[in-house]
């Protein structure tokens, strides 16, 4: 269970989060959507303790996250921008992350095969294409067994085959009863995967609910138009 109350975050004069209230008290896939710069990554980083809010509170399993670093072990996180050390090989990086986490991890050879990373294991990260780097990023995230998974733009750079694999991987984790929080620009992917949509606009949660209820509320025939409808609510 994740409880967020009155969360504020500013960067200098820019007020990004203006009092977010959000509770996630069931299992499933929750997609955070919103225009570019609406604070999706900032909200995610606040949950992870990587960004310190100016005000408000976040609790995971009833424990405030502030100064309680232990909770972080319960979350597997895929960053939007992964700054891998370019001189390491894929294999070395996987081993390093396993050592850092101090968890044995799953049988990662299955995950490596599934993502088609076998031919790249001996290659340096600096020499990989964007899509392959993203597959490495995914491999590192899905290698562990935490009750929460947070995926910041997991679909970036993936070709359709890799998207299908990602879809199956998320679906399997959902079936295990995990809480998965994600963002993505691919609306068909979001619609297919999500149990609930959380739409951020101007620093607040503007909509929260299923894709069906969003379509009803906006009176739009399909999901992508419903999201486009919400985007027009923005003051520009
Ligand atoms: P999103 O993920 O929804 O695209 P972000 O949370 O990354 O949005 O960013 C929200 C806003 O906050 C943007 O205008 C961004 O430029 C700004 N921002 C994010 N991180 C920082 C930072 N560390 N310093 C200054 N501004 C930041
Ligand atoms: Mg972002």
Structure commentary:
The chain is an alpha/beta fold and 236 residues long. It has one domain: Rossmann fold (3-Layer(aba) Sandwich). Helix content is 34%, strand content 26%. The chain is built from eight helices and ten strands. The strands form two sheets. A six-stranded mixed β-sheet has the order 6-7-8-3-9-10, with helices on both faces. A four-stranded antiparallel β-sheet has the order 2-1-4-5, covered by helices on one side. A hairpin with a 2-residue loop joins β1 and β2 (14-24). α7 (211-218) packs across α8. It starts with a strand and ends in a 5-residue tail after the last helix. The mean pLDDT is 93. The structure holds adenosine-5'-diphosphate and magnesium ion. Magnesium ion binds next to α1. The site of magnesium ion (MG) has 4 residues, from α1.
* Helix-strand makeup class: alpha/beta
Instruction: Give the CA-based shape.
Output: globular
Give me the CATH architecture, please.
Answer: 3-Layer(aba) Sandwich
Q: What's the rounded overall pLDDT mean?
A: 93
Give a brief rundown of this model:
The chain is 34% helix and 26% strand. The protein has a single domain, classed as P-loop containing nucleotide triphosphate hydrolases (Rossmann fold). It has helices at residues 40-47, 90-101, 108-114, 130-142, 160-175, 187-193, 211-218, 223-231, and strands at residues 2-11, 14-24, 28-33, 55-60, 63-64, 75-78, 148-152, 179-183, 196-201, 204-209.
